[in-house]
Amino acid sequence: MITADCSILKEHLPLIDTRLEQLLPVNGPGSSTDVIKAARYALLGPGKKLRPSLTLASYLLYHDDPTPILDAACSIEMIHTYSLIHDDLPGMDDDDMRRGRPTVHIAFSEATAILAGDLLLTHAFGTLADMHLPSDIKLRMISEMSRFTGGFNGMIAGQAMDLQSEGKALTESALEQLHSLKTGALIELSVLFGVLGARPPENEKALLMKFAKLYGLAFQVADDIADILHPEEKHGKTISSDLANNKMTYVSLLGLDGASKKAHMLISEAEECLRQLGGSALRLGAFLELLKS
After folding, report:
1. Which of 12, 74, 144, 246 could form a disulfide with 53 if both were Cys (CB 3.0 to 4.6 A apart)?
2. pTM score > 0.85 for this model?
3. Do the Cβ atoms of 159 and 153 come closer than 8 Å?
4. HEC per residue, 8-44
């Protein structure tokens, strides 16, 4: 859960929102359909756009103009939004509130929500294909998006593990694997897109990707803590879907104090990556500050 102000998010949000509006226009062909309206409702609604901001911030460590990487960042937000729409469905987490508003299947219909998610998933790949970047970079991004979000070793695999774990006890290593896929994979992909666009030296790329992996895990631990400490602020209701569906979290496994210690450990390791990078990379520490309670 975000618990602090972040100037990077405030700086990037207008740029991301404006471009998302352009990429999914209200007056495009077929845009009067409920599916387009539902997709825009989710994509352009309240949200900090943290993942595309990570893409921009990673790229801007090496370049001054974010324009070349902006569509890649927006494609990340499309994928993230599609995953939330589908996660909220009755057959998944069965949530009726998201970011203080009715979820898409409540605001529209279940069928419309499924199609809106499908639309955003498909449009994300089309957005990557249409970018004004060298073909080798676009092809690599498309390939990596498929890998990091897919069902073999990516986000969908993590979601499947999450559903299968309901009501079951997991070891800490199993829980870490689950969340490295379900939550961490998309965060890693966000940083990777910035890295692929910027093409830093290999040693710096390795440190940035290590930072991304640590950040993804820390994000999930902090999110589990927020489910307990700030459920109404997170969900607009007094209980999270994880608790309602009897899913194991870092708090249920380690206790609140143990989960807090794990979050602090992960954050410290991620901060060390940034210290080794030095220079402008230290600005990425602002994303870690958001997780500190």
Report:
1. 12
2. yes
3. no
4. HHHHHHHHHHHHHHHHCCCCCCCCCCHHHHHHHHHHC
